[in-house]
Design goal:
The complex is a heterodimer of chains A (419) and B (155). Chain A is α+β, with helices and mostly antiparallel strands and 419 residues long. Chain A has eleven helices and 19 strands. Chain A has a seven-stranded antiparallel beta sheet. Classes of the chains: A alpha+beta (419), B alpha+beta (155). Strand 12 of chain A pairs parallel with strand 8 of chain B, so a sheet runs across the interface.
Chain lengths: 419, 155
């Protein structure tokens, strides 16, 4: 149903895409009109976007600013404990309503420009000098406050992750994610209350889709990231699997370290840089604790369009991608622990935070490799990515030597974009 | 006090030269064996959030940073130019000195692009041992929470 709607008002001024899912032309990462269309059809279309953690809104009147695509959004908690989200755009002249990252104890929001006020749900409740001064000026009698206000988002929460959607047609969040993704999110939180350990932003010099491709690309993980490979945090020869949901847009890649270490023959044969004698002077970095009974030491989960939930050993984080034009994106990291962490567990998380983020032993390369693509393809908008590793379809597999989840991303993206 | 000021300013100057001259293998020697070195943001410090972008609580972890940068991690050729301000001496207790110094780091990329990469302050604890000053703690507090592309070389 959603797909048909998208097809009916499909934009006609984009060139046709090659058939199948194994080719993506580089103009998709370059054109401003593609970017603008994505904001409308993907981010503000029938999709769900991560807004914040429920734990970041502990009390009534707590609020945070966030974004859905590049649209600014405010998330609030009201007196009854319910969480609301609305566009951070005054209904009057469009100014930001909230001009800080977060706050607490708010009863209402007043736009600084002309003091139009909103309640915690984002409903317009007051217009300064609505009736004029001494009977002169003011809004005309025909002005009806109920007809004005920033757009409100639907809000749903899963395991303390707050998601929002601009689109009334979007399925429920659980239906949008599908049962496998829901299970895999629940696995990470395991009913515990998350605690924010740090926040920072990595400014990526590339289109947001290049980062999402990277996240979904299990093929590169042990090749680009030597740190991973050498310490057997992740080798393609470990046991693990890829899950791709039916829409293609969500994925899980997970692995566990086999107790009997698998041989290095395949790696040595490829002459890949990532086979070295590199040893740590202080291996306590990798001395984590058994957090998950299933023995899974790595799980990267993505939700279309631009959300990532990460478990790398005991390093738990959520990543939100905010597009900033065709060739830039902000990657917002929120590093997590849990309320019931012991002191030793917390210290292990602080140490393993070294693995991720802009200085991450295993993630700093992901900050630059998208830029290498963005710059590499400048002169070749009509050339295409080759996405044939592991076949042509977008289904899960036990092998992680596959680009199935990248093809899945394009399957979902094409369905939304109607091109 | 004047002597101490001079000694700390000199140690900071040597620290900056060590990184900017790409002598990273010598960088851990500015620290004690059981040091704490971390890179965080002003916002995280203000909010009492304890995790860092870089965290090392031993000299071994600093050495591992360097060997990872040399052998494991991939990043485009780049260098820094540190400008470290005069140290403010906050507290002296025996051989232990607490200081704060501001810094600006300019990053120069392979293609010549030169831009302010980070500004902030060092919150330091120095220990004087056999007439040499070593860092037992250096918290690098970046003013901004936003890092361009990646943070490879130490600050």
């Amino acid at each position: 149903m959603v797909l048909i709607t998208a097809m009916i008002d499909a934009p006609s001024d984009f060139p046709p895409l090659p058939p199948g899912l194994t080719r993506a032309p580089y103009w998709l990462f370059q054109r401003a009109d593609v970017y603008a269309s994505e904001q409308k059809r993907v981010f503000q279309g029938p999709c769900w976007s991560y807004l914040c953690l429920a734990a970041e809104l502990p009390d009534a009147g707590a609020w945070r600013t966030t974004a859905v695509g590049d649209a600014p959004v405010v998330v609030t908690r009201d007196e009854k404990g319910a969480i609301h989200a609305f566009e951070n755009r005054c209904a009057h002249r469009g100014a930001l309503i909230c001009i800080d990252n977060a706050g607490k104890g708010a009863r209402q929001f007043a736009c600084v420009y002309h003091a139009w006020t909103y309640n915690l749900e984002g409903t317009l409740t007051g217009v300064a000098f609505k009736n004029g001064v001494r009977g002169k000026g003011g809004m005309p009698a025909s002005f009806n406050m109920a007809e004005h206000g920033p757009r409100k988002l639907r809000v749903e929460i899963i395991d303390g992750l707050v998601f929002g959607s601009f689109d009334a047609q979007a399925p429920s969040l659980a239906d949008y994610l599908g049962p496998e993704i829901v299970t895999r999110i629940a696995r990470v939180f395991a009913g515990r209350k998350p605690v924010v350990l740090a926040r920072y932003t990595q400014a990526l010099p590339n289109n947001w889709k290049l980062y999402m491709e990277n996240v979904k690309d299990s093929y590169h993980a042990s090749i680009l990231h030597l740190f991973f490979t050498t310490f057997e945090l992740n080798r393609l020869s470990q046991t693990g699997a890829i899950i791709v949901d039916e829409s293609g847009g969500h994925h899980v890649s997970y692995s566990q370290i086999a107790k009997a270490a698998t041989g290095n023959a395949e790696y040595s044969a490829q002459a890949i840089r990532s086979d070295s004698d590199y040893k740590l002077a202080d291996p306590s970095l990798l001395h984590g604790f058994d957090e998950y009974p299933d023995g899974v030491t790595l799980q990267i989960l993505s939700v279309f369009p631009a959300f990532v939930l990460q478990q790398i050993q005991n390093s738990i984080a959520v990543r939100q991608i905010v597009p900033r034009g065709p060739d830039a994106a902000d990657l917002n990291w929120t590093i997590l622990g849990f309320e019931d962490d012991t002191a030793a567990q917390r210290l292990a998380r602080l140490k393993q935070a070294n693995l991720v983020g802009p200085a991450g032993f295993i993630s700093m390369e992901d900050g630059c490799v998208g830029g290498f693509v963005q710059r590499g393809v400048v002169g070749a908008p009509d050339a295409c990515e080759v996405l044939e590793m592991g076949g042509h379809d977008a289904t899960g597999s036990e092998s992680r030597v596959t680009e199935a989840s990248v093809r899945g991303f394009w399957k979902a993206w094409r369905a939304r974009m109607g091109i | 006090m004047q002597e101490l000021f001079f000694a700390i300013a000199q140690a900071n100057a040597a620290y900056a030269r060590c990184i900017d001259d790409d002598r990273l293998e010598q960088w851990p020697d500015f620290f004690t064996d059981d040091c704490l070195y971390r890179i965080t943001t002003a916002q995280n410090l203000r909010d009492g959030l304890e995790a860092s972008m870089v965290f090392a609580n031993s000299k071994g972890m600093l050495r591992d940073r360097v060997s990872a940068l040399r052998t494991a991690n991939i990043y485009e050729r780049q260098s820094y130019r540190h400008m470290i301000g005069a140290p403010s001496i906050l507290k002296v207790e025996g051989d232990r000195v607490e200081t704060e110094s501001s810094f600006i780091v300019v990053r120069i990329m392979r293609d010549g692009a030169t831009a302010i990469f980070a500004t902030g302050r060092y919150l330091d604890v120095w220990i004087e041992k056999s007439r040499a000053l070593k860092l037992s703690e250096r918290a690098v507090v970046c003013d901004s929470h936003r890092i361009d592309t990646l943070l490879a070389l130490p600050l």
